[in-house]
Amino acid sequence: MCSTGNRNIMTKRIAFLASDAKVAQTARETLVARYGHAAPRDADVVVALGGDGFMLNTLQGVQHLDTPVYGMNRGTIGFLMNEYAETDLMARLSDAEEEVINPLMMTAMDQSGQQHEALAINEVSLLRAGPQAARLRISVDGRVRMSELVCDGALLATPAGSTAYNYSAHGPIVPIGADVLALTPIAAFRPRRWRGALLPKAAKVRFDVIEADKRPVIVAADSISFPDIDWVEIRSKNTIQHRILFDPGHGLEERLISEQFT
Questions:
Q1: Residue 167 in marked binding region
Q2: Model confidence over 36-62: pLDDT tens digits?
Q3: Chief location of this protein (predicted)?
Q4: Residues 59, 111: contact at Cβ < 8 Å?
Q5: What CATH number labels 2-102+241-259?
């Protein structure tokens, strides 16, 4: 990940996208009336109105356009969003700072032999789907690092996603510029005291589900999920870059630091 200035961005053509929430749709109507609207493929910048979930969906939806996305919070937490305001939008976009985020690429095989692929900006998580704990074998770059983890699940998080599900599972907050991924267990039963690991960003992580038919596991790449998983492989996808805009002094680096002192 890296952070760069955004001095050269043009802000004449804006695509306004909004979640289904009424407050987001109302905000979109107001902003379109004030600033106009362009289709995402013709826009210089996309303004996403909603919460963090909608922001993730927007980034996925415009990744082929290489268009920066500026979020304004019309949801709940809004960690990836800026404060909502209807005035001075052009000036805010011109002054915005850009963060570039590489997603995770997940490849998973289910018990029927069907392969699934998905991208995750925050994390890829494996979760038990039945009453019994999951049993996972963890390999890193082809080497088995943990022959058996008995748990409710495990996840691999990017620095941008380290304050989300990863943090709730007692994983570490990772600085935005760190070239590492956080591997965190969820309610580990055995080994009971294992707290996870920090891995190089270039690492290829594989989870094999032990007794998958008896102890079913679901895998989720952000909000995209697949059931009855046999194995999962995850690696950082450096060829894909998500461009996110933040108001000066309120970028991801500052937010990640501030989160640790609240």
A1: yes
A2: 999 999 999 999 999 999 999 999 999
A3: cytoplasm
A4: no
A5: 3.40.50.10330
Judge whether 123 is annotated as a binding position: yes
CA 16 to chain centre: 21
Residues found in the chain? 262
- Mean pLDDT (the chain, rounded): 92
> Is 53 annotated as contributing to ligand binding?
yes
pLDDT at 7: 43
* pLDDT interval class at 134 (50, 70, 90): very high
Tokens in use for 129? 């789907």
As a whole number of angstroms, the distance between CA 37 and CA 27 comes to 13
Q: Determine the Cα–Cα distance for residues 153 and 8; give it in Å rounded to an integer.
A: 44
Over residues 174-189, mean pLDDT? 93
Residues that are catalytic = 52
Residue type present at position 211: E
CA distance 84 to 230: 43
99 is in an annotated binding site: no
- Model confidence at 178: pLDDT above 90: no
DSSP state of 190: B
How far, in Å, CA of 121 to CA of 124, rounded?
A: 9
pLDDT at 257 (0 to 100): 82
Q: Is 94 annotated as a binding residue?
A: no
Look up the CATH superfamily of 104-236.
Probable inorganic polyphosphate/atp-NAD kinase; domain 2 (2.60.200.30)
57 labeled part of a ligand binding site: no
Q: Can you give the pTM of this predicted structure? A: 0.84
pLDDT at 1: 43
Q: Which residue has the tokens 């038990």?
A: 128
Return all residues near 2 (Cβ < 8 A) that are at least 6 apart.
99, 100, 177
